[in-house]
Design brief:
The structure is a homodimer of 817-residue chains. The first copy, chain A, is of the alpha/beta class and 817 residues long. Chain A has 27 helices and 22 strands. The interface between A and B is large, with 128 and 128 residues.
């Protein structure tokens, strides 16, 4: 930690300033409380009557006054310092405060004309809130200035860091609820300060909002001793600045304390950034000592300024303030009176004129134009998004003289492409690679030739590929990688998250929420498209030779495919060039979540670049060079495959069939984009039935070798002619038969191996079972031979380990160009 | 924080003791290193030759020496203090050290006779390690003394706390890797000390193992300033005790420092426990000040004692020591020599006799019998498991005079059952309820009549249901809940995890790993069955009236159903009594993961207790009282349902059909245990085809209303006669059409409503489409009426909100008993 003398900031607010801030805050509280209750009489121009109250009271009050206080003071700070700022609102159910802020500053009405800054717009604001088909009580995509919904808690700080990366002039305030602070992702996020570059990144200002309670419980951080909390926050690398309010506090004192804390934080941030950016070489290169970033601890009552006691029970400053503080107001005149007293305590007549327009002094602290929190282009990142300068694939493609002749590591070639993309974006800094300590392990390390891993903590002699200004973010937390990337994308940049396939499940929930965000954002007219969230899942289930069972799980695909079809895409490129073509495609897409599954181990090069591009564009296709079908006739059987390992086994099976059953007409189909299997009515990438039937036939046996859980293919194709299991589609895939073992043993254990596929063809092709008993026995014998070989040698048998493809074209002397 | 004068512990080891400890540690290191390399010559009785080396070197060295040091010193501590201890080994790929420890103390050989404590057993230990079909390099279920595999990182500390709860005499050491310390779940786990009761729980002793590197990267906690780290750990509520070793450290010094740190920690733990347990009333009731629990920070080089430099690159104390430190040893004589020098540096001849048996001084620190770490019954919890004293359901069942006459909140009745179960286990303390701040929200709060929420942090006047000795664990982290429960179950106790349905996805990955653990544990002969992991998913997708889209996700079922069928079970009880019957069942099961999905809102009581029990036992059944089929004839159509909301809509559809199409013969089928839909070959609960056909018919239209994503039903039933979508099975379910809205609007948006189901029947029953156009139009009109009603009133229309079931039996005057 640092021993610099702390900056002491003298913030002296004039009484008028304090009153202006208080008016703004009271207006936010008034507008928020009314959102919970009112369907009429928005300005309380007449006494409150039951018919002014919504029939069903749904909404949340607890966190709102604290969020309002931050909104007010962030306004002041932005105005006073001439700063671009963005706020990530962490606490759940805080939308009422943020909507109130956006309405008050005018942004809501500019984006949604029926939310105009007058009595009519105010009433619309109140009526729609938390009502059927209306506006959610979370800061969903329809809320101006929001980049996270916060319905699922824990991601605010990670999102804030993601927004701050490569935005050197931006201040990102992150209000962290003390409820969400108990979650794992949030707890890990505190260490993100070791990855924030004071030179190229903006600042993150966490505001830990200790209001003491969750739904029905105290919070941990509000109940530990103050010195323990202080040690914790300093241990995270922060210098905490404290603001404390109790139910009885004089608001003017609180405003002065908040203003001083925010000014103090900004002074520290500006000093740190200035030193890093303008200082000597040492500071510029980031080798100077890491400073503690300031943060604010706001201890303020849950449900502050609301009813203190109802029915003899304390509400304010308890968990009972979480939702509706006074209920039964339509039925009970006393309760109605209580509500009216509460609402009038904000003195709405001082805040709004007769037409419902905010009076001048209420808006004194509000910034202008795009500086308003609800108008920040960073919070509507599509406004800032630029096309990526994607490299020409020709320079990264691997040469393919003949189908399947050579082998390459797909992800290594992608690493080359990423290296060039990093170089091309060096000045723009709008592309980053994210991953949990696996860039090398996933064979993407060529990217380090262009940029190192970001690292602001101590460096030691011998460290490799670490630097203060790097754009590869590595931390052993999939949650942080995902949260950072989401924040980065939603503020208008591009990225790729490379992960071990199995551990993508760590972020299932976050991925699902991001899909929901994109799904909802598509329905918000003023939200501009953002770059897609791209996953590269590698080190996949079939090649966990020494990691074993715990590292074998292809189910992330299933999780994603359950989500909104407008948003989700899954690609399984079978080789290096196809991976490059898929990567090039997904990096150009907008508003989707793309999952790309590809191996890092040497893989046969099935397709040349042009073929790969065409194959990727079609999403699936017949590989006529790999089958034996005769032109113009339907084949006897279709061998279909998706994924690199299944493709290899399928081609090996095709070769075995050619050798052992030369009369059989075999078609080989490879699927890259699995949504093509769905009907067009179910997914925008779905193939029309006629095209599907043209590829898979309507009635010939289809033996499908698939990378993941086999039933997913049935689920996608069940509406097709041959889709049911009693029909001709037969799928092999991963069936949780995993362990520490060799690649070929894995496919044998899961019945996905070439010999089993041949047996499946024999079993399912009419008339073949009796004709081909000897071939079938031979296949069974090979599986037996494998099992004894591996027991004895611990390796795969030579005929498998050394297998190479030789297709009919080689046999007939044809060459591939 | 506390200001007690710190305990200063004077640990003086004699030279002989130090030498004994060092011999044990050297033996562990030798045995570990040999596991990576050797297939022969285990005692190095002859010069190392290439044929002694495994053909494929797979394994990990980096973390092993540090884990070995902990194993050695935990042995000493257990022996010196007469303590029961368990160790949770957090760092990944540490199994070699733990297997070495178990082999050395003899437990491995007792459990697996071919791992005997002689040269033959030693060779078996070496050969099987990290080889195909052999022993994983993670501490998988086959590793004695292990309760977590650690293949996926981040759960060690949570598991340790779970093991310590209600085990007052147990010391649980948790080695936390500095890699896993970056994960969210681990970061959140540090705060678990606010939930540990010094009276009824055991102690957790975290050992933060700072070896500095992950796979290819430095770790954050090893690179922050020491005072920052110290503040962080104190902020977590710990008193850290430091042990530091560098590549050049004299092992004797390190042993003395480790012994002093462990003794110091135990002194503190014993003082704290003694004061809490034997002190005055204040301390006994837990109202005394929370003390900081001690922890050890072990800073020691990655790959310590291994080769310092290979090929001019530093290995020891860098990330390069992560896997195999010297490779190419079979091919390169120099490398082979390097390996031999390394292995001989442990002086095996001093450690083992000619038969490979450990010499006496090596075993001096090893405890006896069940005190040995690999023999702890706590690590094989089934040895300690007792049947739960489950209450009679009769006292909690709701009276059902006629099917569907009344309504109850299912989870509230379950809360009563849990209350009684908590009371019945008050002395035994072997049952706990886990949840993220939602026990009240999920309507389970009656449990608080028996036991409060555990809380060791500060209490304030007005707090409710908080207490230092409670057995309800609430923290806003699904990760912690899951990790604690796993640790609790694997050490032989029982529990239930109640969560909002949508946020179960937060623990997808942990749940998947636990299924894998149970799957693998079934294959380990000496592992005794443990209590199943039970989820109650409530506050489900259909009733998120004010939480909206972010809280709507039924996909946890799909995730779980992808996993090993021997382990996974999913139940969808349609009403209160069925929920009780299901809960009673799952709490009796062993070695499975049970997912129970049930609502908390008032729900029709369809079944009396005896009916519910029978229905639950069958898993699905025809509700003849709800349909109109004529005895002995196949019905015209089958209405099937699974889940409480779909059941209600299905019964309403049945009533509409009875009213509008009285001639139609309708069968109603309800499914509780969805695995019944699978073939018996695919899941142990699968229904034989003939029974399936007897229920669903082979060819009549089946309109299936399902709680979750509809395609799951197709995936389960696709092998059935009518399983494909082109066949007669038609499924309605949740299709991501969510928002903040009313219950009935949710089902309309997702086409699961009663009117749509009737339309489906009309559309899919041969001949009906033309006969019933007017009825169909009427249904369409009702859906239109709903949409305008909700727009106008914000509520559900009266004919839906006030709907009650009246079955044919009422009409015919039959009564239900």
């Amino acid at each position: 930690m640092h021993t610099d003398a702390p900056l002491t900031t003298l913030t002296t607010l004039t009484d008028a300033e304090t009153q202006g801030l208080d008016a703004h805050w009271r207006a936010l509280n008034y507008l928020s409380a009314c959102q919970l209750y009112l369907r009429d009489n928005p300005l309380l121009t007449e006494p409150l009557r039951p018919e002014h109250i919504k029939p069903r009271l749904l909404g949340h009050w607890g966190t709102v006054p604290g969020l309002g206080l931050v909104y007010t003071h962030l306004n002041r700070l932005v105005r006073a310092r001439g700063r671009d700022a963005l706020c990530v609102w962490g606490p759940g159910h805080g939308a009422a405060a943020v909507l109130a802020g956006a309405w008050l500053e005018g942004t809501y009405g500019e984006l949604e004309p029926d939310r105009s800054r007058d009595a009519a717009g105010m009433l619309r604001l109140f009526r729609d809130f938390s009502q059927p088909g209306g506006v959610p009580s979370h800061t969903a995509p329809g809320v101006p200035g929001s980049i996270q919904e916060g319905g699922e808690l824990g991601y605010s700080l990670a999102h804030a860091y993601g927004a701050a990366f490569d935005n050197p002039d931006l201040l990102v305030c992150a209000v962290v609820g003390d409820g969400e602070a108990e979650t794992g992702p949030l707890a890990a996020s505190w260490h993100a300060d070791k990855f924030l570059d004071p030179v190229h990144d903006g600042a993150v200002l966490p505001v830990l909002h200790l209001n003491g309670y969750k739904i029905a419980n105290p919070t941990v951080l509000s109940r530990i001793p103050e010195d323990e909390l202080d040690a914790l926050l300093r241990g995270y690398g922060h210098e905490p600045l404290y603001v404390t309010a109790t139910p009885g506090s004089d608001p003017a004192d609180v405003h002065r304390a908040m203003a001083a804390a925010f000014d103090g934080a900004l002074d520290r941030i500006e000093r740190y950034q200035r030193e890093a950016r303008e200082g000597g070489k040492e500071a510029r290169e980031g080798a100077g000592p890491r400073r503690p970033w300031p943060m604010v601890v706001l201890r303020a009552p849950k449900g502050w300024t609301g009813p203190h006691e109802v029915d003899g029970k304390q509400i304010e400053d308890t968990w009972r303030a979480h939702q509706i503080p006074v209920s039964g107001v339509r039925e009970d005149p006393e309760k109605l009176g209580e509500l009216e007293r509460w609402l009038r305590s904000y003195r709405p007549e001082e805040l709004f004129d007769d037409d419902g327009r905010p009076r001048e002094h209420v808006l004194e602290c509000v910034p202008e134009g795009d500086r308003r929190l609800g108008a920040s282009p960073h919070a509507n990142g599509g406004r800032l998004l630029r096309e990526l300068p994607l490299p020409a694939l020709e320079e990264h493609a691997v040469p393919v003289e003949a189908h399947g002749r050579g082998t390459h590591e797909p992800t290594r070639a992608l690493g080359g492409l990423l290296r060039e993309l990093m170089s091309a974006t060096e000045g723009r800094r709008d592309f980053r690679l994210f991953g949990p300590d696996e860039t090398d392990s996933n064979h993407l390390q060529d990217v380090y030739d262009a940029t190192p891993r970001t690292w602001q903590a101590r460096q030691l002699e011998g460290d490799e590929h670490l630097g203060p200004h790097g754009r590869v973010l590595e931390v052993l937390s999939e949650h942080l990688c995902q949260g950072w990337l989401e924040g980065y994308l939603l503020t208008g940049r591009h990225g790729l998250f490379a992960s071990y396939e199995a551990f993508a499940h760590v972020v299932d929930s976050m991925a699902g929420q991001h899909v929901k965000w994109l799904h909802s954002a598509r329905e918000v007219a003023w939200r501009r498209p953002v770059a897609s969230l791209n996953y590269l899942l590698t080190s996949h289930a079939w090649r966990q030779d020494h990691n074993g069972f715990s590292h074998q799980d292809p189910g992330f695909i299933d999780h994603v495919m359950n989500k909104s079809p407008e948003v989700v895409r899954v690609y399984l490129p079978p080789d290096t060039n196809t991976l490059l073509a898929v990567a090039d495609h997904v990096l150009r897409t907008r508003d989707t979540v793309n999952v790309v599954v590809a191996g890092k181990q040497p893989c046969f090069d099935w397709l040349g670049l042009e073929e790969a591009r065409a194959h990727c564009a079609r999403g699936l296709g017949v590989w006529d060079w790999a089958g034996t079908e005769r032109h113009g006739q339907e084949p006897d059987v279709v061998l279909a495959c998706a994924g690199d390992v299944p493709t290899q086994e399928t081609l090996a099976a095709s070769a075995l069939l050619r050798e052992h059953l030369p009369g059989l007409s075999v078609r080989v189909v490879n699927v890259v984009d699995i949504a093509r299997l769905m009907p067009l009515t179910a997914h925008p990438h779905g193939l029309p039935d006629a095209e599907f039937d043209a590829v898979f036939t309507r009635d010939r046996p289809v033996v499908f070798a698939y990378h993941g859980y086999p039933w997913l293919i049935h689920r996608l194709a069940y509406r097709r002619a041959g889709g049911s299991a009693t029909g001709p589609l037969h799928v092999r895939g991963y069936r949780e038969m995993g362990t520490t073992t060799t690649p070929f043993d894995m496919v044998v254990r899961n019945d996905l191996d070439r010999y089993r596929l041949v047996m499946d063809v024999i079993d399912r092709t009419p008339g073949l079972a009796t004709r081909a008993t000897a071939v079938r026995q031979r296949m069974e014998d090979m599986r037996t031979r494998h099992r004894s070989w591996i027991r004895e040698h611990g390796t795969d048998m030579p005929e498998v380990a050394g297998w190479t493809w030789s297709g009919p074209e080689e046999e007939s002397g044809a060459t591939h160009t």
